[in-house]
Specification:
The structure is a homodimer of 318-residue chains. Chain A has 2 domains: 118 residues, Orthogonal Bundle (Farnesyl Diphosphate Synthase), CATH 1.10.600.10; 190 residues, Farnesyl Diphosphate Synthase (Orthogonal Bundle). The first copy, chain A, is an all-alpha fold. The first copy, chain A, has 17 helices and 2 strands. Chain A has a two-stranded antiparallel sheet. In chain A, strand 1 and strand 2 form a beta hairpin. Chains A and B meet through helix 2, helix 4, helix 6 and helix 7 of A and helix 2, helix 4, helix 6 and helix 7 of B.
Chain lengths: 318, 318
């Protein structure tokens, strides 16, 4: 994704990596041991990227780097907790904290990363920034609760599914954009940029859910249908159920109890054409996000970069 | 504990309960369902009490109530996560979130309570306040990590044990006092009040650990020796190992695998007189805390109330 930026953006992202490494190293041997691997395994750093791009054209100063580190720390915290809940052993080819240190240490590691996210942002002195982060982190947890409450439920509507995507993923994308606007040089555009972020976040989640059904395994690093196996009802299944009456009538919990059954169900969902419809839904969100940007008086470089990020969300699935 | 205050303190604590109820009711049906029970089951509200007492003599205004709600929300979040880690089914006679909603919902519920703690404090606009809370919440998580790292380790020193108490319990007591000072009418006393809070917090934790060994079960609601059973090395065992060479030579993990063995080990620890020494250590912390207060130019009512809270920490064990 770095091609959207220039030396200034690269400097910001590099400083963010340095800051993340400092935080992970500076809060006890246990954190360094448990979270060091996750940090080194990297990631797309999409949320810090949004912070810098929405931060406008100024030099990436300390407050923007703090915000970028904060959103990535919060993201890391949720991944560490998600891996505990999913009992996942690998992420990005690296053993998860859950696998290497156990359930209890992983839960505490997530909590510590979570706390450091707020500490980073508190250091910027931006009250509105702390509010944005706490709103996002509440939304992430609510999204998780909603997902657990809806597990195995055949009657999950599209609206409820999209609301969950907004909470689980859109909220932190939105906060990243808002923080960039609040702490950077763009002013009074934070609502619109947050709206842009939320939309590409929802698109990102929908496409992630498509990928769980479509595979290929070589790309995702996991077998197809893992969401089905743990009862998470996503858009592909919702659309497929509208098109395949027999599928809709079945009980998910009894129908899918093994990885093989989940894979077979993935094929069946794909056969209804539901994946294309789900992809189209995600593309519509990306298009809306770009329309949102048109409302703003952005520099041409900044607009082009944000458009490229929006397109990048889609391209990773093409 | 209410006898330490007057109508002003009672009003503050009542407003805190109202605010906690609003927070739990206002962030989705799932949070209301999962955390409503814990909230209704109550608790000593010792941390909010410290906020108000350290807040001085002004009317308990909105910012102080927000801080009191924030520290209690953070405390509730850690209890919900602790119950997941300990697979505990009851707390204060009420089913835990873990027991009623399952591991995953309980983890997310803890995360949401955690987020709302920061949201409450962000609303006060106090940058120093948010920093105090994030410092405390990092310390709580580090304490938990330290405890897991030290599980079953025979060589835990007194110093390391006390550091863990400081992180696990002292830090949030300290933050409660600091927040009271920052947001209330006392000024430039927050360091000293935080020091007071930390000391009574450590005393509180040491006495809690004594209670785990001493019982009685009717009071604690659990069998004696639960810490021993999950490998948590506390002061009573450290002191007993200094006095009983055979005990020190044994391997905790192989020696204690059942609740009966944990109870027998509790008797053996008590027989060394270690509980008296541990209690004396806690009393020394309380005395130090009260000495700390002497440095401050407090009103006589405020000083008397804080002294009573310090004594109250001890009295609950007498």
């Amino acid at each position: 994704m770095l091609e959207v930026g220039g030396p200034r953006l690269e400097a910001g992202l590099r400083q963010t990596e340095e800051r993340l490494a400092e935080v992970v190293a500076g809060h006890g041997d246990e954190l360094a041991a448990h979270a060091g691997g996750s940090l080194a395994a990297g990631g797309k750093r999409l949320r810090p990227l949004l912070v810098f791009l929405c931060g406008g054209t100024a030099e990436p100063e300390r407050r923007l780097v703090a915000a970028a580190a904060a959103v990535e720390l919060l993201h890391m915290a949720t991944l560490v907790h998600d891996d505990v809940l999913d009992q996942a052993s690998l992420r990005r080819g690296t053993p998860t904290v859950f696998a290497s240190a156990g359930r209890n240490a992983a839960t505490a590691t997530g909590d510590l990363l979570f706390s450091r996210a707020f500490a980073e942002l508190a250091a910027t002195g931006s009250e509105a920034g702390v509010r944005a982060l706490s709103t996002a982190s509440s939304a992430l947890a609510r999204g998780e609760l909603l997902q657990r409450a809806d597990a195995w439920a055949a009657e999950v509507t599209r609206e409820r599914y999209l609301e969950r995507c907004r909470l689980k993923t859109g909220s932190l994308f939105a906060a990243s954009c808002r923080l960039g606007a609040l702490l950077g040089s763009s002013d009074s555009t934070d609502e619109v940029l947050a709206c842009f972020g939320e939309r590409i976040g929802v698109a990102f989640q929908v496409l992630d859910d498509v990928l769980d059904v479509s595979g290929p395994t070589e790309r995702t690093g996991k077998r197809r249908g893992t969401d089905l196996l743990d009862g998470t009802v996503t858009l592909p299944l919702i659309v497929a159920s509208e098109r395949d009456a027999e599928l809709a009538a079945g009980d998910l919990k009894t129908a899918i109890t093994t990885a093989d059954e989940a894979e077979a169900m993935s094929d069946r969902i794909a056969a209804t054409g539901a994946l294309d419809e789900a992809r189209a839904q995600a593309l519509a969100y990306v298009a809306e996000a770009k329309t949102t940007l048109a409302e703003l008086d952005l520099g041409s470089d900044q607009r082009r970069a944000l458009d490229l990020v929006a397109d990048g969300v889609v391209e990773r699935y093409s």
